[in-house]
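Hey team,

Filing this mostly as a record. A colleague (T.K.) asked me to run one chain through the structure pipeline before their review meeting, and I want the input and output archived in the tracker in case anyone asks later how it was produced. No errors, nothing strange. Just documentation.

Input sequence:
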Amino acid sequence: MSTMSQQSDRTTVELKPVVIPDLTIKDLLSAIPAHCHKRSALRSASYVVMDAVIIGAIYKATYFLDALLTPEHIALPHAYLYPAARFALWALYSFFVGLFATGLWVIAHECGHQAFSESKTINNAVGWVLHSALGVPYHAWRITHAKHHASTGHMTQDQVFVPKTRSELGLPAFDPSKEDLAGSSVTEEVKRELWEALGDSPIGAIYGSLRYLVGGWPAYLLLNASGQPRYPKGTNHFTPSAVMFRPDQRNQIIISNVGIMLWLSAIVMSISQWGFFEVFRVYLVPYLWVNHWLVLITFLQHTDPILPHYRASEFTFPRGALATLDRSLLGDLGSFMGWLGAFATHGISETHVAHHVSSKIPHYHAWEATDALRKRLAQNGITLQGRPGGWAEVYRVFKECKFVEDEGDIVFYKNAYGLAATKPVFVDNTASDSGIEIVDKDA
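Output structure:
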């Protein structure tokens, strides 16, 4: 929100204009160099090897250092410091292994988009192995993820991160005499009612964010949490007859389930062989970190007060593809951590808009595609680079994005007081000068 004025019984804010794209898919694709679409199985496989080698090196280094944390090798002031040092060592291990394992997750995700190689057989084989090893039902998620790409930002067709509406949350009905639909003016009475219904305390926001980061991914797969609300209760990614899947995709869902059963069997057998504690610290904690990074990255890519959501009459594929943000993962912790976040996860957070424009672009070409696309979008006054992605940003977005209105064909999130941050504007393509003329249809 740019400015805010406070009257005795009403708060009024100036909403930041956000350009609603009026571009064709040809406009977007023509901006990306043709060679960015070239896929190489060998080059893609080299990144799998690289990630595996780095994870293996971290594993070996951690065990080497763990063996040194004894009185025979290092003299510490107190005996309790030895287990504390081991805990810190293994905490660092799980963080970094989880980060680089997320890179493997990203490559498996590229397999689902057929961006790994020119061969569909290779793509699906590699994707099934990598995703199964990380507890992901490869084909089931590949199918729903493709639907997400086709309908990103669509209020009734998108598959995940679909905003809750005022009525779905059971909030007080919209009253035009006390608030405006855009969210620029709200009476103190309405603000109080909404805040009491939604809650907006720092502790509540922290708890909600942590719960979302830790449990959001399995909850989505198992319960359709944060998914498309029109799907029936009990919808999940493991039932072949689920509403998201066509009858001819049944065998693919079964193959996905076989991968998950093998994954669970491997965990159980590993626990019986090496004990729960060893499996917990070597694999399960990094696995939770992978889930955490997945939710953090994708949540911030698709959720922000500046991102529009569309109902059917205003939705187009280009608008959906551009209803996303590029963010520097861990960039809020400094330039080195920003570089590490991008390197470990193959730029999935930093090049996401280009990925939505053309999902077959492999990650090693996505940087060049992103630079070219940003230049084209700038010609229309469109900037899709969000704040750096990290825990503080999740907290901010969680507080600012509470609900959208039931009315309106283009909607933006409102906060717990019913105030929005942005409003839609349109580029006037008929302007006679060489500049960009912005049109506010509500003005």
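Quick notes for T.K.: The beta strands are 3-6, 10-14, 16-20, 185-187, 309-310, 410-411, 422-428, 437-439. The chain has 14 helices and eight strands.
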